[in-house]
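FW: tagging you since you asked about this chain on Friday. Here's the raw sequence from the shared folder, copied in full. Didn't touch anything.
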Amino acid sequence: MEIERKYLIEKLPEDYKDYPKKEMEQGYLCTAPVVRIRRANDDYILTYKSGGLMVREEYNLPLTKAAYEHLRPKTDGRLIHKIRYHIPYRDKYTIELDVFLDALAPLVLAEVEFDTKEEAERFVPPDWFGEDVTFSPEYHNSALSRR
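HL: got it, structure written out here
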């Protein structure tokens, strides 16, 4: 189960480049339900996500590089290219800060995952977070791939 909140970021924190990062490329074989392939540095993953906004099922399966490269041309829409920074927050959370590249630049989104729906609903974001777009389906990566 994936439980996450998502926020627009208008002004990046000054030190964001000091944190661990992954260069990611992902594409969608299907968007309803979501079936995604992703390359994150040298890791390759096939993901299924159910419908939903803040809470949804998620299953990840490892792919080989060859399998990823075979599926890559079969994706619909644009491939999403982004850099994801992992920023610790309040000793419990990790902010996944996505800086989109290419056609989606200068979009920046932050996601935070939670153990329970109640925890997600109580979350108070840092002041550098912008609008909460958790319940705006147009900010799902699957929707961004069709923009």
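FW: The first strand starts at residue 2 and ends at 8.
HL: agreed, and The longest helix spans residues 65-71.
FW: great, closing this out.
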